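The aim of this short unit is practical: by the end, you should be able to scan a pair of folded records and say something sensible about each. We start with the first protein, listed as its amino acid sequence and then its structure tokens.
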Amino acid sequence: MPSKRYNKLPEGTKDLNPGKIDSILKVVKSNCTTKFDESLDLSLRINNKQKKNEINLRTVVNLPGGTGKSINVAVVCEDNKVQEAKTANADIVGGDDLIEKIKNGDFSFEKLICTPSMMVKLSKLGKILGPKGLMPNPKLGTVTNDIAKAVKESKAGQVEIRNDKDGNIGLSIGKKSFDDEKLIKNYNAVLEAIEKEKSNLTIKGDLVKQIFITSTMGVSYKIKLDKSI
């Protein structure tokens, strides 16, 4: 049963005419009536049903304003890379020992980074890591010899953009406490990353069909689309 707080929120907002991000943000924030700092989340629907193939969009974006979240980053690397990872503030660092812990069900991290040579060993855990979205991927910058850069970017506000089988993408662009300028920069960074990926895809028509924004405990609003994507 919806709470009294939720019952006071506007109804039918997702059916309103789409608005520009700067005006919609003010409305979404006004609905953030909980005591905690709610996240502002995007929901995108992409045109992934093509005649010849389905579109599988997967990339990362570095949000210039950060995410407002603290994530635990694990690094699987050789002994000579351990100090580099620790200096970059990785939360968990190891080699074969860490791989064994993961194999036994230790997932006390949200992002996993590894060096190319360790990926050979880590790939054997694909059935465990894959479904959780934790398998390192060179395209996402999580299989690299530049461990310091990968860790720092992950900590600074790097998020993954990935559609599900129905063409939905969900991600956060920050918190209610962020000023509008920071949230708009993060929003634009997401669209720029998607537009960049579009050039690598064979697609007819627009890639993005709809974009909605909502807060953690709020209601959703449709954002006016830039037809370039």
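Turning to the second protein, read its sequence before its tokens, just as you did above.
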Amino acid sequence: MQEYNIRTLVNGRYLLHSPSHSGTAPLLAGFHGYGQTAEDELALLNAIPGSGSWLCCSIEALHPFYTHGGDPGASWMTCRQREQRIAENMYYIDAVIKRIRESCPVTDTLCYHGFSQGSGMACRAALLGLHPSSGLMLLGGDIPPELSMHGSVGKVHLARGNGDRLYTREQFEKDRARISEAALPFTSTLFSGGHWANDEYFKAAGKFLATV
């Protein structure tokens, strides 16, 4: 058997939610979890106190599928052709941010938010992307092991529900240590909940966002 790759065109999808005021606004870009859609992540962003003064963007993964419940969802990547998928996703994310900055009245302030599988993409966007970030918010997802945390990230908010069985306490502490070793300013939140957000998380996230 011989394996080949061929480049093709795939359309990506993203959602925008305008700020509550007119004029320029900072940009808050989010990445959803495995099996979710851009709508799910946009709902998370909009629930963060203070996000109404930001232009919120939710970017949907390029690989759609039907979940076990029969609903449409998407995935950022699997372990197969991982490096190639990362490169494709980075090209996609950079293109989205570039288009927004060219077509919308936004400031230079950019904050990335990722949930679960989307946390890895938020990290890559902040550390590998063409658009340096002022903030990075990670909820229920780990920092990719191959990434160096020494980069233009600004400050970091790392959060986990204490009942989260997917993003373990051990991994949470490892990620805390990596951020600390990189001498990045960060805030960590361990809230009462599982693998999702709740009011306790949103309150902490809102406080962090206000400092970006």
